[in-house]
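Translate structure to sequence.
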């Protein structure tokens, strides 16, 4: 057993200051296939009980091949906590201050989604800075199905 262990140094990634981020940096997130379990968990958490999200026959009668994911169910695939970014800002992150998205194409049960965050603006202020990221979600065919943005407030060093 080592006597020099420090839990504050036990990190997934080396911390970075606000000033270290650059426009164009990309943070891919793990891919995820939209399973029945994910649909059910989102329905339970959101309270959304519209049949387009859980009734296959309802969907088919309306021309959809299968269950449709809720737009917010697609957007949450861009949660920064699923990737590396929050581990880089452990010591400086104050919080997420804004998030928005636009659904571009439907996502159905069985689709595999590939989300990413990309730094598009780094705006220093007096003691804090705003880091704006473009959020994207592509499906398994490479189609952009959702885009949006996250804005994070970080302390300056």
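Result:
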């Amino acid at each position: 057993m080592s006597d020099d262990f420090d839990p504050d140094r036990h990190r997934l990634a080396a911390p970075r200051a606000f000033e270290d981020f650059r426009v164009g940096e990309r943070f891919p997130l793990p891919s995820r296939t939209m399973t029945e379990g994910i649909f059910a968990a989102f329905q339970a958490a959101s309270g959304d009980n519209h049949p387009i999200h859980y009734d296959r026959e309802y969907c088919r009668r309306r021309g959809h091949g299968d269950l449709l994911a809720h737009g917010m169910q697609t957007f949450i695939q861009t949660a920064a906590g699923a990737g590396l970014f929050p581990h880089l800002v452990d010591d400086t992150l104050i919080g997420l201050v804004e998030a928005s998205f636009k659904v571009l194409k439907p996502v159905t049960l069985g689709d595999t989604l590939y989300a990413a965050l990309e730094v598009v603006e780094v705006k220093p202020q007096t003691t804090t800075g705003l880091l704006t990221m473009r959020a994207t979600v592509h499906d398994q065919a490479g189609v952009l199905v959702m885009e949006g943005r996250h804005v994070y407030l970080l302390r300056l060093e």
